[in-house]
Amino acid sequence: MPLKPFTYPLPETRFLHAGTHVYKFKIKYGNISHNEDAQNKDCINKELEQAIRAVLGNIDNLQPFATKHFIIFPYKSKWESVSKLRFKHGSMFLVPYPYVCIMYVEMNLFQQDILLDVQYCLRPDR
């Protein structure tokens, strides 16, 4: 089931249910332009959703990684109030993950630089 659209480029906090766990995700953006066109929103949402899946899949060994448009810097921080919280889905109690998953997202400027270089090299006057 797809996630609701992200508030890109505004920071946000989300609670995600995966299996028997609940994860708290904070998404923060760096060098991001606020002038994204609506056409890219779907692509951006898909990339961010895939990035969250990658973080969850590598939760015990987080490393920076790149997508087509972004560089993602994932890290964890102790979730201080986790012991005071209870989550339930239907009749099943869920276990909160003891860390907040933080994703710092930046534009993949390396990809943009390559694209600009290729366009420059392909110009007819070159």
TrEMBL record:
<dbReference type="InterPro" id="IPR027816">
    <property type="entry name" value="MAJIN"/>
</dbReference>
<dbReference type="GO" id="GO:0003677">
    <property type="term" value="F:DNA binding"/>
</dbReference>
<dbReference type="GO" id="GO:0007129">
    <property type="term" value="P:homologous chromosome pairing at meiosis"/>
</dbReference>
<dbReference type="GO" id="GO:0005637">
    <property type="term" value="C:nuclear inner membrane"/>
</dbReference>
<dbReference type="GO" id="GO:0070197">
    <property type="term" value="P:meiotic attachment of telomere to nuclear envelope"/>
</dbReference>
<dbReference type="Pfam" id="PF15077">
    <property type="entry name" value="MAJIN"/>
</dbReference>
<protein>
    <submittedName>
        <fullName>Membrane-anchored junction protein</fullName>
    </submittedName>
</protein>
